[in-house]
Design a protein that fits this description.
With 326 residues, the protein is of the alpha/beta class. It has six helices and 19 strands.
């Protein structure tokens, strides 16, 4: 059996939060180890195209390039990147234990959780294929690229209507698709959307098919009552049916809020377990931007650094309190 490996800091998953946490802890000479995932290395931004709203890039930058730059910067200061997953954790003790797929146990004094959240998908055959080519899950990220175009938004509640209203500032028209004949959103949001001249509604409808070869060129709408279908020519499909935080690894150990996101003792990134910190979209169901995730990754790193300093001070204090043999 492989001997456990000792670490000061382990970061679970990459992305803006994980890479920023790694950068800050590496610069503090804490030699962080980042388990970036075997599949989702770099997080959601690796599946996007041009990112125009991350500070410091006036001409924009491709999502994968931004993540590669963040990774390289953290590695420059000594962060160790492991493109693999953590499959189980025991975070309850003073020393945290994390197990990788090979069965190796990694022990750490501090853990930073940056597992993010995943967009809920429609489950259509062309959905992933046309991601970044007309299919989007983030109006704030991608709305600008659809200036003057006709788009469709599949909605759920308030957040979805906010996205539809936001998108109407850029696009030629927004068709809001909803499975029922009335929205669950607040009356204020409904009223705002219904008076917007660019927004129309496709009630009792669902997306049955995404059309297009290299880019989205239209969708097929299906009536949820009659089953009848009709074509709608659009150049963009925004899916706004919610997010699922990736917290299944921590169930029963870290406290979750009613929506399943990790709870932290704001404004800190401290979870309910000492030495465990959380950052990025796994705690944020309000903003969900790369820049806010990076900022919370910085906060988690600083919190972890202070926690380790406090542990070191406590050890030093215990040593100083020992009686001196005469």
């Amino acid at each position: 059996m492989t001997e456990p490996i000792e670490h000061e800091v382990v970061v679970i998953r990459s992305g803006p939060a994980g890479y920023t946490a790694a950068l800050y802890t590496a610069r503090a000479d804490l030699k962080p180890v980042v388990f970036g995932s075997a599949i989702f290395v770099g997080g959601a931004l690796t599946t996007t195209t041009e990112v125009e709203n991350f500070p410091g890039f006036p001409d924009g930058i491709q999502g994968p390039d931004l993540m590669n730059n963040m990774r390289a910067q953290a590695e420059r200061f000594g962060a160790v990147m492991i493109d693999d997953d953590i499959v189980s954790v025991d975070l309850t003790g003073d020393i945290k234990e994390l197990t990788d797929p090979e069965g190796t146990v990694h022990r750490a004094k501090t853990v930073i959780v940056a597992t993010g959240s995943g967009y809920r998908k429609l489950g259509l055959p062309r959905e992933d294929e046309l991601s970044g080519r007309g299919v989007s899950w983030c109006a704030t990220c991608d709305g600008f690229f659809f200036r003057g175009k006709d788009i469709v938004v599949v909605v759920g509640g308030d957040t979805a209507l906010e996205e539809a209203t936001f998108l109407s500032c850029f696009v030629a028209s927004v068709t809001v698709v909803y499975r029922r004949d009335s929205l669950r959103a607040s009356k204020v949001m409904q009223a705002r959307a219904q008076v917007d001249p660019k927004i129309s509604f496709a009630w009792n409808s669902e997306i049955a098919e995404i059309q297009g070869t290299d880019r989205v060129s239209g969708v097929v709408l299906r009536d949820t009552h009659t089953g009848e279908t009709r074509n709608l020519a659009v150049e963009g499909l925004f899916i706004a049916i919610g997010h699922d935080p990736r917290t299944e690894l921590f169930t029963g150990q870290l406290d979750l809020d009613p929506e399943g996101y990790l709870k932290v003792d704001a404004p800190s990134t401290c979870t309910n377990l000492p030495g465990v910190f959380a950052a990025g979209d796994v705690v944020d169901h309000t903003y969900r931007q790369a820049i806010t995730a990076a900022a919370s990754g910085c906060q988690a790193a600083l919190d972890a650094e202070r926690h380790l300093a406090a542990l070191a001070d406590a050890v030093q204090g215990n040593r100083s309190a020992q009686p001196v043999a005469l």
